[in-house]
Amino acid sequence: MKKILLSTGAITAVLVGASMFAAFEAHVVNVTARIENALTVPIEPISFGTVFPQEELYRTLPISLSQSFQDEGRVDDVQYFIRQKPKCGVTNEDGTQIVGPTWTGHVVPVPPPAGTQGPWTYYVDCNLDAPDNVVQDPNNPELWLLPSLCQYLSKHSEFDGEEYEDGALNAFHQPFTILSDGTIDWNDVSGYLSKIAQDFSDIWTIDLKVPCFGGFCAQDWEDYVHDINLDADPALYTQDIDNEHKVFGCNLWVEVSGVSQAQPR
């Protein structure tokens, strides 16, 4: 019986000793990675300048696979979407000119009052990402919010005569809605690029359908809206007369939603 006890004690001593040695040993694994963008998107502003009610103006937005993505054999295609977000900016007192920086506003859902079944609402926070040189007002988070141009912008991918290559979104739409649980449902439009399909770039058409103001809309306003978007309610897209002459804005966000691996040959 004594021999068994001694053997057990010896084993215990060996295990403790191994633990002590491990505590004084270290190995360095060198980890590096070069991070590149999958897409190349021009960041020059899309400016429509001075426009007039019921005008239709067109611009293009090219989106392509970056050279780094094309050179990397491990990956093949990219899924992405274009999202419309509120635009904030410093204007003159009457809002007719941009006189300072611009940036993206954040949509903040607001629940209905406690004990009620009303819908969720929202406000746009222009303070969260405001530049350091912009004087913020915590009591008025929408202080620098520009009137929205997003709902008047159509976004269409290339058309082959029968269908759009990727997504399409007509003007006179809601850029987002607040669902009954308070989540934001963005009205995105999707795109897709693939090396194996030799589809390296997309040319999106961004066109502006200019709204009218107050009670000064043309007699064919409803027909004009329905010709572009049959499901739209023309009354929802008539601008308040107080916004006439002001600078409108919208920020288009192009975001990658997925990258696939190249199939082994």
Structure description:
The chain has 265 residues and is α+β, with helices and mostly antiparallel strands. The chain has one domain (36-261). It is 13% helix and 31% strand. It is built from three helices and 14 strands. It has a five-stranded antiparallel sheet with strand order 1-2-13-8-9. The longest helix has 21 residues, at 2-22. The radius of gyration is 28 Å and the shape is globular. The model is unreliable at 1-18 (pLDDT under 50).
Helix content: 10-25%
Sheet bearing the most strands, described?
5 strands, antiparallel
Name the overall outline: globular
Q: Mean of residue pLDDT?
A: 88
- List the domain count as a whole number: 1
Strand content bin: 25-35%
Global Rg: 28 Å
Q: What are the low-pLDDT stretches, counting only 5+ consecutive residues below 50?
A: 1-18
How far apart are the first and last residues' alpha carbons, in Å? 67 Å
Helix count, per DSSP? Answer: 3
Read across the widest sheet, the strand sequence of neighbours is 1-2-13-8-9
Q: Which structural class fits the helix and strand makeup? A: alpha+beta
Number of E-state strands? 14
Summarize the structure.
This protein is α+β, with helices and mostly antiparallel strands and 265 residues long.
Provide the descriptors you would attach to this structure in a database record:
265 residues, 13% helix, 31% strand, alpha+beta
Task: Annotate the secondary structure layout.
Elements: H1 2-22, E1 39-40, E2 56-65, H2 67-71, E3 75-85, E4 87-91, E5 98-104, E6 106-110, E7 121-125, E8 153-156, E9 168-169, E10 176-178, E11 184-186, E12 189-194, E13 201-209, H3 221-228, E14 251-261
Antiparallel strand pairs: 1-2, 2-13, 3-12, 3-14, 4-5, 6-7, 8-9, 8-13, 10-11
